[in-house]
Write a structure and sequence with these properties.
Radius of gyration: 22 Å
CATH topology of the largest domain: Rossmann fold
CATH class of the largest domain: Alpha Beta
Number of domains: 2
Number of helices: 16
Mean pLDDT: 95
Strand content: 5-15%
Low-confidence stretches: none
Order of helices and strands: EHEHHEHEEHEHHEHHHEEHEHEHEHHH
Shape: globular
Number of strands: 12
CATH superfamily of the largest domain: Glycogen Phosphorylase B
Amino acid sequence: MMEILFYRYGNICEPDIIQVFEEFGMTVIEESTEITQKNIAPDVRVRLIAEALLTHPCRFVFSINFFPYISDICEKLSIPYVCWSVDCPVLELFSESIRNRQNRIFLFDYTQYLRFHPENPDCIFYLPLATNIDRWDSIMASLTPDEKAYYSSDISFVGSLYTEKNLLHSLNLSPYTTGLIHGIVQAQLKVYGYNFLEELTDTNLISTLKTADVNYLSVPKAYTNTDAYVAANYYLGFATAEAERIQVLNTLAQHFPVTLYTRGSTDSLHNVICRNGISTLTEMPKVFHCSKINLNITIKSIQSGLSLRIWDILGCGGFLLSNYQTEIPEYFELGKDLDCYESLSDLKEKVAYYLTHDDIRMEIANNGYQKVKQHHSYRQRLTTMLRIVTDSLMQ
């Protein structure tokens, strides 16, 4: 029986992937210290992984997202390191370790894939995300009438407003720089389906941000300079996410009932029904299933790909209205499996339409559910992943 080492840090995808690996007949050995101890010293992390690999003859190591030190350990021990990126941005992908020959890195955003693939062409692959239909079906089967009433909404959004993640809030910037950033953010908000933040990030803005923030993000042993990427995706990107989510929710709330589930501050919202954050694996699917319209607002650093939220809403049988992403038509038919908006005015028109056309909305929700059930489960994705890994190792 094949043994694999699964490095866990508490990502919500981990239980679903472990379940499928075990269904495939694998023995999953978990290194999960980081779930409960978030500040493990680097040397302890290395020791934990090395000891686990020296104790068990594992076929490969797996993790959600890329960890350079795991890659380096696997490179030294000649053990394949398989990882699946579910986030973007992921600064660790700029590490020199991405070039290790034992890597088998899978990226869900095709634009992200095009950026990093040339650094290790035989070891970096594109693989969209997925969902666990069985998990969601079991939760829906036990929904009570009281739960259906509580979680029902005309329009719902589950997620952060990025207020607490916006790094610019803690910086002392000049009025000129503040105005410049505001202008860039407002320009980006007017464009759907294309991220130009990095193109507008010049050396002067980078220098200003680095001077203002002594903790300016970087990655050890990067194969290239990451300053522009960090400025665009972490500083400008998170500021854009905050502005966009507040703008969308406040605009809709002027005309329709909107419910937000979040753990962050909601001081900037008006007329929005604000509820506390909810459990991702138990409560969130009930919101998706019971809401008439589920909003998805993708952060700009996910340039073309489909976030996990898209797959999960559809997998719960929810109706999805998302911002447009260029990869969505590769997997779904707009207006049949889900729908997208390309401007605030377009969003308002589609919300008004779908709230008054229940039969069409429910038919689309069912089509989307059937599509992911048939073609986009974790079993199907991991079957593809393992085939690619096996084929690449035989070359």
